[in-house]
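Summary for the steering committee. One of the milestones for this cycle was to obtain a three-dimensional model of the protein with magnesium ion bound, which we needed before selecting residues for the alanine scan. The sequence and ligand used are listed below.
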Amino acid sequence: MSTLEIRDLHVTVDEADGSVKEILRGVDLTIRSGEVHAVMGPNGSGKSTLAYSIAGHPKYTVTGGTVTLDGEDVLAMSVDERARAGMFLAMQYPVEVPGVTVSNFLRTAKTAIDGEAPKLRTWVKDVKQAMDDLKMDSSFAERNVNEHFSGGEKKRHEILQMELLKPKIAILDETDSGLDVDALKIVSEGVNRSLSTANPGVLLITHYTRILRYIKPDFVHVFVNGRVAEQGGPELADALEESGYDRFLAPA
Ligand code: ADP
Ligand code: MG
Ligand code: MG
C-alpha cells in the first residue's frame, strides 16, 4: 500500500522574457494504491505542469508545498531516485534516444528500478506478452526509442513501460490524445491490466471525458487556473461531459 501526497504545491516557470509566472497555486491531492484519480481541466490550466513538477522537470520551480511518497520527500529526489522509489512518469523520457532500442531501454529501466537485472527467460516472455496484449508488432522492440514513433506508438510505448515496470504510482498525461477509438481501447485495457496486476495509484490527466468510459476513475478533480476547483466521484465526469468547463471559468 502506497500513498502519494501533494500538499499546497506552488510552482513557477521562467518565461522567455525573463519574468516568473506562477502556474500551480496550491494543489492538494492524495493518491493511494489501486485508486484512479482523473485530473480534468481546460487547456492551459496547469495539468501538465503538475505532472512535470512531480516528475522533477528542471524547467519548473517548486516555490511552496510538499510532495511525499509514503512519507519520503519526493521533491528532494533526483529524477532517477523518483523512478526507483516507484513513481512512473510517462513523460520522463519523451525524447529520442539514439541507438537505444525499445528492448534495451525497457531492460535497462527495469534493472535500474529493481536494483538487479530481470531473469532473462521470464523477462523476454513478459515483454512479448505485454506487447501482444497492446497489439504491438514484435519488430517494435528493435526500433530506437521514440525515433519516428507515431502519436499512437508513443502512447503504447508508455503503457508498455507501465505494465513492465510495475510502478507504485503512475502519472499519465493525455494518454488519450490523438488516439482513435480502437487504439484508445487497447491502451485503456493496458492501464486496466496494470491496475489489476500491480495495483498502482494512477493520476490520469485528461482534457476529455472519452477515456473515462474505458478507465473508471474513483475520483475526479476539476483543475482550473492552477488548482483543484472541485472534486467528486465519477458522476463529476458525467456532469463535465454535459456542461463542459464553462461554469468553472465564468467570471465571479
Ligand atoms: P495544461 O496541461 O492544463 O494544458 P500546462 O501545464 O501545459 O497546462 O500550462 C499551464 C500554463 O503554464 C500555460 O499558460 C502555459 O503557457 C504555461 N507554461 C507551461 N509550461 C511552461 C514553460 N515551460 N514555460 C513557460 N510557460 C509555461
Ligand atoms: Mg496544454
Ligand atoms: Mg497538458
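Key point for the committee: The chain has a mean pLDDT of 92.
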